[in-house]
Amino acid sequence: MTPTKDMSDGAFEAIAQRFRALSDPVRLKILYHLGTEELTVNELVERAGSSQSNISKHLSILYSHGLVRRRRAGTSVYYSIADLSIFDLCEQVCGGIDRDLETRRKAFH
Length: 109
What we know:
About 60% of the residues lie in helices and about 15% in strands. By secondary structure, the protein is α+β, with helices and mostly antiparallel strands. It has a domain at about 10-80: Arc Repressor Mutant, subunit A, CATH 1.10.10.10.
């Protein structure tokens, strides 16, 4: 998002909603685990270390914001990443945190 283009209030709201969808550690953990493969809810429960109802609730939020997709195969539902650009954003944020931590570490040495 660059300040060179006009943005409507609706655009700002859509951006804020996307950030809110990413603002929970469990949802970030789900996205992390889906980063390399499709997984079922049960597989995500095991990997994320949360209850099935909690994982399902967070998957619903991620799905409603277009961040994950789902595919039914028999009695199983598989989830995968729908918007791979989310990982670019996460890399940007992690890089910023790393730089901040390094600056703080240097200040104390």
